[in-house]
Specification:
Layout (H helix, E strand, L loop, with lengths): L1 H17 L7 E14 L12 E3 L2 E3 L2 E14 L3 E12 L2 H4 L35 E12 L2 E6 L3 E2 L10 E2 L3 E9 L2 E11 L15 E14 L2 E14 L3 E4 L2 E4 L3 E14 L2 E14 L5 E14 L6 E9 L9 E2 L50 E3 L5 E2 L5 E11 L7 E12 L16 E15 L2 E12 L1 H4 L11 E11 L1
Parallel strand pairs: 18-20
Antiparallel strand pairs: 1-4, 1-27, 2-3, 4-5, 5-6, 6-7, 7-10, 8-9, 10-11, 11-12, 12-13, 13-16, 14-15, 16-17, 17-18, 18-19, 19-23, 21-22, 23-24, 24-25, 25-26, 26-27
Length: about 500
């Protein structure tokens, strides 16, 4: 009996030491409910609005979006793990009950009366409602100068300035580190598209899209006068869009593009300047070759007058193409234009950051983007889902705005207001109804955001945003149109824990 106890104790001790080291896991989460109203995204009173796209799915008019997240994280001296599971959906019975699983492609059967209803039985599934890992990041620091990281977190090369080139949650793997107190870097590989077609013999690269970037950061000065300069080198290897039907794949022309850039962020007392310049140089792999040569830039300055009033002025530029029939694609296209989430001009929920494309609007800017990079079509090689065109007209935006915290007047209340004056850069590829040239003035947007925190765990913010069309958009409306402004109202109800 005694020998048996000794053996059992020995096995328990050995087993404990054989187990991997355990770590504390902390949980966190949020629930964001967003009653929303979209109106006249097509700028036409005489035509019913077409559905558009947001993070919850395809929708339009009055709707409620729910972004529900549950996260957990753990870590040690050198390693960290973080994951966030999410369901992002448009409120309706079929989505919350997940009854879209009766869609014909998944479960063929007799079509129901609401077969064409978005989110309804026999319709395309609302993929955002699938509860799964929306964000994930895993890292191990071998030394402060060499940290391995991977997953699909939010990653970016220029989200801190104009957001012209790349910011998204694409799968990524790479290294980053701090070489000195003033020098940091990222070296990363993005796997954006890598999905073969089942039972289709073709190149293993067909429809793939990979990107690689190097971004060092050099910091100068002290807290009262400090600046960071960051060169950007990014290579995009785009292997086309397409699908396999009856055996053969139909794939759009593929493209290889180098992006060279420089980003700067500073603070000199109350003055906070920022800028970026991006040059693209590449070509489509077709015959005859179509060259890709373009430019984008951003510059802005914010004045930290006091906590209640911080005004800013900024300019944002993407070069346009003026001849879709030549062998040059000059309309700027990045990996993902992420203007919606940039610190100066960004606003999560303003109209210019919504999806003004896919037939819903003539401006043709995709979700998150501030540029009309889906306009015209043809020569596709970047943007969300590779759907942005090198023939796009580009844009010139002059922005003015202000933000502040009004605690001294109303506790826990803050605001942001801004207006954008928008011009097309080139209009040679745009078509004027009735003939002639399209005017360059695209329109003006105005955004108002009001925020109030009821407690550390519950807050709300309201956004009103409008896009008043200029002659450039009016020129492209149908002859039967009665032009009007596009607008949205959103109310964010946010619980965090």
């Amino acid at each position: 009996m005694r020998k048996g106890l000794i053996v059992l104790l020995t096995l328990v001790v050995v087993g404990v030491f054989a187990l991997p080291a355990m770590a504390d896991v902390s949980f966190f989460g949020s629930a964001r409910v967003v009653p929303t109203y979209y109106n006249n995204f097509d700028f036409d009173k005489n035509t019913a609005d077409r559905p558009t796209l947001n993070e919850g799915g395809i929708t339009g008019g009055e709707h409620i979006r729910g972004e529900l997240r549950l996260g957990w994280k753990a870590g040690g001296d050198k390693w960290k793990i973080s994951m966030i599971a999410e369901s992002d959906l448009i409120y309706n019975k079929n989505n919350v009950d997940r009854s879209y699983y009766t869609a014909p492609a998944i479960n063929p059967g007799v079509p129901s009366p609401n077969a064409n209803q978005l989110g309804g039985v026999n319709s395309i599934p609302n993929a955002g409602a699938e509860f799964g890992i929306e964000r994930a990041e895993f890292s191990y620091a071998f030394t402060p100068a060499l940290e391995l990281f991977t997953g699909w977190p939010i990653s970016a090369v220029d989200i801190g300035t104009g957001g012209l080139l790349y910011g998204d949650d694409h799968p990524i793997i790479g290294f980053r580190g701090k070489l000195t107190d003033n020098i940091k870097y990222q070296l990363a590989y993005l796997s954006i598209q890598n999905t073969p077609i089942v039972n289709t013999p073709e190149s293993s690269l067909a429809r793939d899209w990979r990107a690689y970037f190097l971004k060092p950061e050099f910091t100068f000065g002290t807290a009262s006068a400090k600046a960071t300069l960051s060169p950007i080198l990014l290579y995009s290897d785009f292997r086309g869009n397409g699908s396999g039907t009856a055996g053969a794949s139909v794939i759009s022309p593929t493209a290889k593009v180098f992006y060279y850039g420089l980003e700067g962020i500073g603070q000199f007392g109350m003055i906070k300047p920022s800028f970026e310049v991006i040059v693209s140089d590449g070509e489509f792999r077709n015959t005859p070759t179509t060259d890709i040569k373009s430019l984008a830039a951003f510059a802005g300055v914010e004045l930290a007058v006091n906590k209640a009033f911080n005004p800013y002025v900024a300019v944002r530029y993407t070069k346009g193409d003026d001849n879709s029939g030549d062998t040059e694609a000059e309309g700027f296209v990045g990996i993902t234009d992420i203007g919606r989430f940039t610190p100066l001009m960004g606003m999560d929920g303003n109209i210019l950051g919504e999806h003004l494309g896919s037939g819903a609007s003539l401006f043709n800017s995709p979700l998150y983007s501030y540029a009309p990079d889906r306009a015209v079509g043809g020569n596709l090689y970047g943007g969300i889902s590779g759907g942005s065109s090198g023939n796009n007209p580009g844009s010139q935006i002059l922005a003015v705005g202000a933000k502040g915290n009004l605690d001294d007047f109303v506790k826990n209340f803050s605001y942001k207001v801004q207006a954008f004056y928008i011009r097309y850069d080139k209009t040679g590829n745009l078509v004027k109804t009735g003939g002639g040239s399209v005017d360059k003035y695209a329109g003006t947007t105005a955004d108002v955001q009001l925020m109030y925190a009821f407690s550390p765990n519950f807050s709300t913010n309201y956004i009103f945003s409008a896009f008043v069309p200029g002659d450039g958009i009016k020129d492209q409306l149908p002859a039967t149109a009665d032009s009007t402004f596009a607008s949205l109202h959103t109310l964010n109800l946010v619980w965090t824990y």
